[in-house]
Amino acid sequence: MTTQSTWGSTRSGRSPWPGAIGIGVAVAAVLGLTVWAFASGTNGLVYGIVVAAMSFMPGLALGWVVVVDRRTVKGAVRNPEETVEAQWYDRATRGTFHDLLVVMGLTATALSVVPQWRDGLTASDALLACMVFAAADVSVRYRLIKRRDS
């Protein structure tokens, strides 16, 4: 029988923090060095340090997810994919996929018919708009499904 704690433990019963911190440092170092290597100008080292500092906490979170045995976390759901929230999210994302197909198709049609609209539009602008639309659509659909099923 494994004991449960708020932060969990590894499969061997040890603290997850040494491994999680090691992964966090590795992620921060790799990203910081990559930015430093590819940065143009004289501020490459500063950019690398800033990116490394900002990426440590997400790297630490990734390390915790990788290292911790889920069964040792107090209050963790045994099969999270079977929860009602996961089902709501699945239904919301399925609907959003179809909305994205329609919106992207109509946008592509409009941009091909009216060339003045696409003159100032870059690919990154279009992808960002799709991501914002998808995030908003999933959020609205999730809340509507939650309200309807509750």
UniProtKB/TrEMBL annotation:
Keyword check for Membrane = yes
Span-the-membrane segments of this chain are 20-39, 45-68
Task: Determine the domain of life of the protein's source.
Answer: Bacteria
Ordered alphabetically, the record's keywords are:
Membrane, Transmembrane, Transmembrane helix
Query: What protein does this entry describe?
Result: DUF2178 domain-containing protein
